[in-house]
Amino acid sequence: MESAVANSVLGMIPQSMATYWAKDGIDLQLSLNQTLTKSLLKVAAGKLDSALVPPLAFDALKKGVGPYKKMGNKATQLASNVRTLFGVPGSLFQAVTWADDDIKNWSDAAGKRVFIGPPSSAANKQIMALATAGGLTEGSYDPIKAPWGAATQSFQDGQFDVYVGAFGFASQSLAELSLSHKIRILSLASENQEPPAELGLQIAIIPPNTYPGQVNESPAITWQTLMMMAVHKDFSEETAYQLTKTYFENRAAVAKTNAMLTQLPTIDHLAGVNAPLHPGALRYFKEIGVSVPDNLLPQ
């Protein structure tokens, strides 16, 4: 299984679940710090058993666009090999500026440098859509792309003015950043600014005082990513069933171990999922009475 950086929500979920999966007979070999658009491609090609991937990336693979544009029809063919087990809440996009600069809201970032995630990342489109919803016209700012792992230090070094990081709620790394220099989190104007349906996002709220050096006096409204556990269509049905069953039977317990994982039990079983379910996962959902839309039924 592959996932994102170790201290991210997506890295912590499989790390935290590994013990429970092991108790139920699943020996997990986990590789972190991966580019998830590439992980999806490995799953589709049968070179990797499973990965936490963005629904937006799967949509791009089906259409042969974005990071898969050069693959042409081969991308669409590979997408037909992908199945999913369940949806998981991902990170919150938290647009950070220094409290003492002149950027108080999204529109103030016109003409500034805005970090939008790693090159060829599904996050690029999501973050740019968030900026647009905040009132920052596309083309009015300089979009900066760099690896997630280097972003915090690059922001501290002044390489960009707005750091739109993918953090878990109450992220320790963001708390530490705010202690070194007070921060402001940019907000959308209203909780009614729903993200475009195809982007695999949902509304999220960051209250004041979430971080020790946060100066926001009102809640910051942003968007949260939704991810899905992807497997190859030929993945073992019994293993798919057990991975899914163990996850849902233990996600509440895992959520109590870390503040960044508190949202694990709160989202729907299929939130964000846009690829057909694996038969093993479908068997579990039928057992517990979860209704599965026709478009997610195994093909």
UniProtKB/TrEMBL annotation:
Pfam families to which the protein is assigned, alphabetical: NMT1_3
Gene3D superfamilies: Periplasmic binding protein-like II
InterPro entries given in the database record: TRAP_TAXI
Domain of life: Bacteria
Protein name per the record: TAXI family TRAP transporter solute-binding subunit
Gene source species: Amphritea opalescens
